[in-house]
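If you are new to this repository, start here. Below is one unmodified record pulled from the training split, so you can see the exact layout before writing a loader.
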Amino acid sequence: MFQSILSAVASLLDEAEIPYMVIGGQAVLLHGEPRLTRDIDITLGVPPDALSRLLPLLPKAGLAPLVEPDTFVRETMVLPCRHGASGIRVDFIFSCTPYEAQAIERAVTVDIMAQAVRFASAEDLVIHKIFAGRPRDLEDARVVLLKHPDLDLDYIRRWLQAFGEALGEDFTARLEELRPAHRG
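And here is the target side for that same chain:
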């Protein structure tokens, strides 16, 4: 069912020319290792005022908002939805930051049910997971780092350092703690 939803949503977003990338657990399945995930997280490369472009697409993919969209998106930058037939949750995250724009540009395309679906690159997935910082996220980042020893660590460090300076946290230290013993 996840593949069907991903394919339908990607098709509609492409048709509406809304830039996006799949992040979270679905991207971990691509770049990391199999694990249980109960939802789909999609970053949209548009600001919250583009909600009016997204709402008409939702019923075409079998999705319905779980909240009053206007107020919730304005306050949280997220539109949580549920797929009616399966009950699977799909969260749309609105973002137009320079980092997210670059990450969407770097997204990798995977063919799912004859539809090109854009997923966060392995590097950007590591950045997202380290930034989130929950134990499950850090484990996901560690697995991706192990599975992909050829990642662009300079790119990852550059963004983690920028986020760290803005937020007063040492995200690069988290990266180094997660990296395999054969550091490079």
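Two things worth knowing about this chain: The longest helix spans residues 153-167. The beta strands are 20-23, 39-44, 63-65, 78-83, 89-94, 108-112, 115-119.
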